Amino acid sequence: MTGSAARHPLREAAFARLWVSGLLTETGKWVLQLAMPLYVLALTRSALVTSVVAMLGLLPSLVVAPVVGALVDRWDQRRFLVSVSVAQAALLPVLLLVDDPGDLWLVYLVVGAEAALTVAFESVKNVALSTMVAEEQLVSANAAIGLNVSLGRLVGSPLGGLLLSAAGLPYVLGFGSGAFLVAAALAWTIPPSPARGKGGGDARFLTGIGQGLRTLREVPMLRGTFACVALLAVAQGMFVVLFLLFVTDLIDGGDAQAGLLRGVQAVGGFAGTATAGLLTRRLGAPRLLSVGVLVFGAVSALTWNLSTVSVGLGVYVALFTAAGVPAVWLAAAWLSLIQESSPLPVRGRVMASVLGLSDGLQALGMLAAGLLSGAAGTLPALNIQAALILAAGFLAMKLLPGGRTNGMTHGGPARTAGTDQAESRGSTVTSTRTRSPWDERQ
Hints:
The chain is mainly alpha-helical.
């Protein structure tokens, strides 16, 4: 291992700028995700309309993800990040035109567009990350990026509520646009992406759109990893609905307690980020995924069922903090496995497909949670949610054995249909690196 490879990726200037750009985007996103449903609820007094707004934050990615992935594989990643962030900032002022329920179509339009742009940003960010750091730094880099989600929620959620209640919607939108614009400025400072050949893996754009799904199906490591991610996505969707019921119905809490519990998971995330790299070197990414998911599922099951004997807030603060540790492990592990196992010419399409399908499965989990909680009650529904997480962990153990990646060789990811054609056009696929192609541009 070289001295450079031993460094934490946040000590690399290009990655650090990408990390801050992602943090600003996450914070802006969480400000809006908290404030907009509250604003719509106050405007309409309709829980149904509010839930539609929440669902629009997930469903558009199912449609746009394949196209976004193909564009990611064709365009320069730096310019793509900047363009997406500027578009996110430019759309928000449209919501200033919303004055009454008759203007809700504008909310639906902007929320749906922002959701599509978020998928685009996440896809290109994860592809850029995978080419920016050495392979042995990848899990640590993904753990750091995963921490952005926790930090963004920790800062953005209360800030969104505070801005909306104290200053009003214009200040919420102003903060969101400002965060996206600063993120765009930072993204512009990272080096251009490495050349991958004309066409980014497929000169025929329309026929190349489905290549991400085909690759996901054909590479064993990708197929096994996504099976685990799919179960986790359904469980996450269930959590979004059931968490508030857990707080209000099972531990006699309210809005303040719900905000505290969602926020403290970020504290555990720091420990998860600090230990992810060490655990990967000892266990390998496949085993880290299994361990992270199983520990997370066990903590979830304990948390939900402890409500039958205790409603003490301190107990749940400790448990939600503890859950933040394996949450970072599992997120860093599955992202790394997807990145390492995807041929570079189609990596954007694979990543966008995973994110788009995950959002759709989260929406399915939300629907299932509503039906289950009404039919069986809150605690049984929560136990089903925890069981799905544990099932994902056991599935990862079965499908992803050992510390090395299935379908991978020392030379790189397993090849899929179209990959050889992509390389013949001048693209290079590598997975084992001691030096990032970005280093020469520093």
